[in-house]
Amino acid sequence: MTTLEKPTEEDSVRGIPEDARRRFELLQDCRELVISRLSKMVGEALNKMSEELAALALKQKDSDEQRALMDAVSVVRQHRTEIELRFRRSFTDVFERRLFNQALPGVAAVDAGELTLVDDDVMQQKLAVDKLVHRARGKLDPDEVLGVRARFAALLEREWFEEENHPASPEAIFEALKAALAEIAPKAEVQSALLDAFEPHVSANLNEVYSTVNDRLKANRVLPKIRPQVAIKPGQKRPGDARPGERAAGAPGGDGPGGAGHGHAGAGFGQPGAGQGWGGPHTVQEVQSVLTQLSQGTPAARASATRMLADPDIFAVADLPIPTVEPPLIDAITNLQATSATAPVIPTELLADLADRAREKGSPLDQLTVEIVSMVFDYIYADKRLADIVKQQLLRLQVVAVKAALIDRSFFARRQHPMRRLIDRISEVAADPDADLSPGAPLVKGLESVVEWVLLDFEQDLGTFDKARERIEKLAAEEAVRAGERIAQLTRDAERSEQVAQARDLARARISDRLDPDTPEFVRGFLDEWWSLALGEAQVAGAESAVGFEEGLTVAEGLIWSAAPKYPEDVPKLAALLPKLIKGLMTGVRMIAMPDDRRQAFFDELLKTHTRLIETAKQTAAAAAARKPSNLRMRPDGKIQFTPIVQAVRAVPQTTDTPIPIEQRSALPDLRRGDFIEVDDGKGEFLAFKLSWVSPAHKLYVLSRFPDEARSLERAQLAAMFQAGRARVVEGGSTLEKAIESIASKPAADDSPATRPHAQALAA
Q1: Rounded to whole angstroms, how far apart are CA atoms 536 and 534?
Q2: Quick one: CATH architecture of 660-737?
Q3: Angle of helix 549-562 relative to helix 463-514, nearest 10 degrees?
Q4: For residue 84, what are the contacts with CB-CB under 8 A and spacing of at least 6?
Q5: Residue 712 parent element (H or E)
Q6: Interhelix angle 442-457/327-341, nearest 10 degrees
Q7: Distance CA 593, CA 175 (A)
Q8: Which of 62, 137, 207, 586 is most buried, taking the most CB atoms under 10 A from its CB?
Q9: Which residues, in sequence order, are CB contacts of 86 under 8 Å at separation 6+?
Q10: Whole-angstrom Cα distance, residue 129 to residue 178?
Q11: What is the Cα gyration radius of the chain?
Q12: SS3 sequence, 635-702?
């Protein structure tokens, strides 16, 4: 059968097995389940996207991006139902086409040696969609993904589904979304805005869809248990020969000939299979070959071994037994575990003892596992993000990690392995720049307690690590409260600073409207640098301010008028104004703590200006009459009146809604609260900070670091630091994942355990 058609009675007569009907019914059931769940997800997303896109558009400073977002809002509002229906039809087509390996309609096959030209816009769109797919896949549970790939393949009696090619993959969903939007939103920038808006909803809901499908199929005995399984066939390339990320030829995951590639035969309903497992001669030979290379100090051996153990495509899926660890080795490791439980620091000799015990009492696979786990901890020790006090506690867990990896062989291939999740969570908490990791701090004492409990409690049940992680989560929550108290005042100060900055922009705009062409430069500078700050503070402080905003603006008007050329009759008015003007200016500059020397210099210059203007007015009325028209005049009652006569001469060409320059936006990455940022301390060393607060207008950023170091930076300042290489975002991700990838791609130069970084440090 090449399409999803129900087997008929005639099929039964022709010899199609009875369980084909069952597989068809399950396949149809799962197809409808996936389609209905995803269609519902799209509908719910569309209900929220209108407001989300509108809010995003209001924050945009680039007019083209803002226009694209508003066009996207219009598309959602006008075509919401049509988009949902089109997605359902498109995804149904994509699902079945991927299910049965059918080519895209109307697309001819391209010869492998034939070169084709791809339009730049098409390539850009593809890269944008690939980025969304990557973001969505990063939030998926690998175990659920593995289950969907394996169980759909089992229903179809095929070898495998590649991660990006299974019928419910993120690629399939975004392909269907793009097809659904093609005619409704033909503009590339509008399509891009809509796909970007869909991504968070896809990422948040896809795990639940996979989980439901897996539960449904497991309940019907379709691969009820999926465990790592190496199945190496005759003629297959050795795992060590494959490059990182490359699937060895003939390994499970391919679509080539060769029968059921999961190591199972038949429909896959929990039946044992005939595929060759770890007991086969080829597998033992491969492991032994890698171990021999390791013992001989071959640099590439470690990378080969790590790729073999960590690659899910080599560790295929099957309900087949994997050889258990040799009991004498577990007993020996348990004794070492008891020793490390009573020691605050892992003894140096214990590290070498681990390898010795594996060689004496373990199988080749056991020896390989111990070797690679030890290497992973080498990389953990080298992680500069972690404080030494935390590394010591993680290293105490090395014996337990070896034991856990021997009990559950999926340690390297499965990110959700309980021991890996525990180590990663400890690393995440300890890498937080705001965390108090001083000796005796609550977090440090709590971490020591959890590690000791694991060392004493763990025997065979991996659930111990889940319980330990729950305790770490509690410690993290308590530390977050303490850190929150430390930076609460800092955040309040930052929020107030931005409010003052916004009020200051308004003050600058109001003052610049009142400037005359004859206003002296020293007055302009004072108003821009100092008096705008006084008005900004006054606006934020409100009734508590010594000078009100409007009162301060009146003082600014008096200052501008006082420094303009005078008619003879203006001299008595100036004399009457000056006492009140000087008093208002002094109150304002004291409020903002203007430095004494700067204040004295300003008032000295103002006195000289007034003296000169009075002398000029007395000497000749003709010279005063030659003055240019002014925005300000004094009324008979002695008050200054603002009447725009000439075009305003702005002191600062910016207002509260001034667009952020493109070069500043491009220099600053997409930062979010909670990001870790390393900043050059001026001596060539980078210190880790946490982005604790971002202003609503994204104009002010607060970086914090325990215990009390903090930096409040304007957007332009931070952008300049990134552009100059003095600031950089710290990449997140799993510590263990990075360690395994590093081992797989960069073999160590020396195989001797004594040369390992943490062994040397502990010996010292």
Answers
A1: 5
A2: Roll (2.30)
A3: 40
A4: 39, 42, 43, 46
A5: strand 709-714
A6: 150
A7: 61
A8: 137
A9: 179, 180, 181, 184
A10: 9
A11: 35
A12: CCCCCEEECCCCCCCCCCCCCCCCCCCHHHHHHCCCCCCCCEEEEECCCCCEEEEEEEEECCCCCEEE
- Between CA 197 and CA 544 the distance in angstroms is 44
Structure tokens at 609: 């200006």
Q: How many CA atoms lie within 13 A of 411 on its CB side?
A: 28
**3-state DSSP assignment of residue 113:** coil
Distances (CA, A) of 593 to 114, 599, 675: 73, 9, 34
- Record the tokens describing residue 743, joined without a space: 């081992």
Tens digits of residue pLDDT in 722-755? 888 888 888 777 778 888 888 877 644 444 444 4
pTM assigned to the model: 0.50
Across 162-182, average pLDDT: 90
Residue 78 has pLDDT above 50, yes or no: yes
Q: Which of 138-152, 185-199, 263-277, 300-314 has the highest mean pLDDT?
A: 185-199
Give the whole-angstrom CA distance, residue 354 versus residue 332: 9
Region of 216 (left: φ > 0; alpha: ψ -120 to 50; beta: rest) is alpha
Backbone angles phi, psi at 702, to 5 degrees: -115, 120
763 contact partners, CB below 8 Å, separation of at least 6: 348
Q: Which of 356, 312, 315, 311 is nearest to 333 (CA)?
A: 356
Residue 401 C-beta-side C-alpha neighbours within 13 Å: 27
Residues contacting 571, CB < 8 A, separation 6+: 614, 617, 618
State which H helix or E strand residue 373 sits in: helix 364-382
> Quick one: pLDDT at residue 66?
82
Buried b (16+ CB within 10 A) or exposed e, 123-133: eebeebbeebb
Question: The tokens of 123 are what?
Answer: 């390539």
Structure tokens at 364: 């080749």
Q: How far apart are CA 679 and CA 730, in angstroms?
A: 10
In sequence order, the 6+-apart residues with CB closer than 8 A to the CB of 312 are: 142, 146, 228, 413, 414
CA dist 744 to 160, 301, 307, 734, Å? Answer: 24, 9, 5, 15
Domain ranges of the chain: 9-105+115-224, 516-642, 660-737
3-state secondary structure 167-192: CCCHHHHHHHHHHHHCCCCCCHHHHH
* Residue in 281, 201, 213, 283 with CA at minimum distance from that of residue 248: 283
CB 714, CB 702: distance < 8 Å = no
CA distance 518 to 638: 21
Q: What is the mean pLDDT of residues 309-316?
A: 61
Q: Which amino acid is at 523?
A: V
Q: By three-state DSSP, how is residue 520 classified?
A: coil
Helix (DSSP H) and strand (DSSP E) numbers for the chain: 27, 9
